[in-house]
Amino acid sequence: MILNPLFAKYLRKTILFSVSFFNAAFGIFLISLLLGSCKESDTLGRNLIPNSDKSQFKSSSKFNLLTFAFREDSVKSDEVSINLLGSYVDPVFGKSSSSFITQFVSSSNQLDFGPNPIADSMVLSLTYSGYYGKIDKLNGLQKVKIYKLSNIIYKDSAYYSTTNPERFATENDLLTQQTFLPDPNGKYQSGTPIQKFHLPQSLGQSILAQQNAINSYGLASVFGGLFLKTANDFQTIGNGAILSFNLINADKPSKITLYFHNDTSTVVQKYDMLITSDCARINFFKHERNGAPELNNQFADTTLGKNNIYVQAMAGVSSKLWFTGLEAWQDSLPVIITKAELVLPVETSLIGQYAVPSRLLLVEKSTNGDYTSIADFGLSENYYNGFFNAADNTYRFNLAVYLQDMLNKSRANKGLYLVPAASAIGANRVILKGSDKIKLNVTYTKIK
After folding, report:
1. How many CB atoms neighbour CB 28 within 10 A?
2. In angstroms, what CA-CA distances link 303 with 85, 309, 311, 348, 432?
3. Which of 94, 136, 329, 432 is close enough to 292 for a disulfide, judged by CB 3.0 to 4.6 Å?
4. Is residue 384 part of a domain?
């Protein structure tokens, strides 16, 4: 057990209680629970506390919890490690879609296409890193529209998932639209899985005509990049997937390959335009809740959060947790909290089809609306936790410092926000039990 550093200073008598957030009275714990549940704390305290002054079990209703889900606004989604494309229709969360923009850089600044170069073909290759949803047979069918950028994106600018991509490309910039069956597992290819799209020869020919400009000013001066827009209007509930691409994979970089020939060579030549860490990239997310009555009901009536709460990546859904009833601690103060483990059970009915996030975070929100970490997060990964525990289908958090600060009134009780750890690069979602089923196991020491 990892303890609050303040424990050593204030150790007197240790009281363990488990609070389950029901409105009903809390059951009294058996003494054997203490002996088996916090051995490290008991060992430390036993040598210091006289037999006449040892801890007693107490039941308590000093903590209550309010929980509810809400729509997320946006997330910063530029220059992320993974880019997302595609859509799926979740039976609970509705339809979620992702599109992205990327720039390209020239593989050489000393290009020589030779006399009268003629474009033969042009292929966009994207390196897969995974998927979320269904890709089997027609259940995973996807449609994408590919646009040439008409306005520049800048790597040193900040872009968010709700940024309007029409700032950079309009319907007049449409190059092609293609329907494809994803192959992120490499079932129909060897080596690293790649998704390929054929681009118009006319785009290749226009680039071949700009050799000198590319050598002098870079590829972006003549070709701003591509916008890949998901355009699935045929998916039904339970179908589709969000596809993940590692565009800057060092071993298998994503790129455009332009194949061409010229007047002096009969051998087909090629020119690569690469996606590297120097390229600006933006993910765009969209969520349609028309087929999501459970979520919509809770958005309209937050009291339903006592039953279930929801978290979805791609700036979809987060949940708020609010501790109440702290005034009931006044008779017990001063105390030092040594551990406060919040246990959030997962609703598992769809977990086989939709994997839950590997980690969630409990954070606060600053006055400007940004999420900020709490002190417990900075102590250590093992201490704070937040990882999904497949053994009992729970997420667990240690909030000892956070609760201590609230009892000491050194922190305002503004509530905590339950969010995915990778909202800008993941698509996972999870349904959790609400406040009626969430538990808080607190170990604290009373100070005389």
Report:
1. 9
2. 35, 11, 17, 22, 15
3. 94
4. yes
Q: Band of the pLDDT at 6, cuts 50, 70, 90? A: very low
Q: Can you give the pTM of this predicted structure? A: 0.86
Quick one: which of 278, 144, 266, 274 has its CA closest to 198? Answer: 144
- Give the count of domains, the chain: 2
The residue among 251, 279, 307 that closes a domain is: 279
Rounded CA separation 328/366 (Å): 27
pLDDT band with cut points at 50, 70 and 90 for residue 14: very low
263 shares its domain with 155 = yes
Rounded Cα–Cα distance for residues 426 and 4 (Å): 32
CA atoms of 1 and 40, how far apart (whole Å): 6
**11, 48 contact by CB (below 8 A):** yes
Q: Are residues 222 and 174 in the same domain?
A: yes
* Structural domain for 87, as ranges: 83-279
Is the Cβ–Cβ distance between 271 and 123 less than 8 Å? no
Q: Token pair 């103060």 is at which residue?
A: 333
Q: Is 313 domain-assigned? A: yes
**Residues 431 and 92 sit within 8 Å (Cβ to Cβ):** yes
Q: Are both 21 and 87 inside the same structural domain?
A: no
Q: Which of 92, 69, 94 is nearest to 303 (CA)?
A: 69
Residue 1 belongs to a domain: no
pLDDT tens digits, one per residue of 300-336: 999 999 999 999 999 999 999 998 877 777 777 788 8
Helix (H, G, I), strand (E, B) or coil at 61: coil
